[in-house]
Amino acid sequence: MPNETSPRILCVGALTLDTIFRLDRLPPGPGKYLPVDAVEIAAGMASSAAASIARLGGNVSLFASTGQDDTGRRVVAELTAEGVDCAYVRSVGGARSAFSSIFVDAIGERMIVPFYDAALLSAPDVLPPIADGTFDVVMTDVRWPLAAAKVLKAAREAGVDGILDADTASLETLEMLLPLASHIVASEPAAERVTGESDPERATVALAALYGRDGAFIAVTAGDKGCFWYDELEGEVRHMPAFPVDVVDTLAAGDVFHGVFAWGLARGYPTYQIMRFASAAAAIKCSRFGGRRGAPTRAEIETFLT
Amino acid sequence: MPNETSPRILCVGALTLDTIFRLDRLPPGPGKYLPVDAVEIAAGMASSAAASIARLGGNVSLFASTGQDDTGRRVVAELTAEGVDCAYVRSVGGARSAFSSIFVDAIGERMIVPFYDAALLSAPDVLPPIADGTFDVVMTDVRWPLAAAKVLKAAREAGVDGILDADTASLETLEMLLPLASHIVASEPAAERVTGESDPERATVALAALYGRDGAFIAVTAGDKGCFWYDELEGEVRHMPAFPVDVVDTLAAGDVFHGVFAWGLARGYPTYQIMRFASAAAAIKCSRFGGRRGAPTRAEIETFLT
Question: What is the pTM of this model?
Answer without folding.
Answer: 0.89
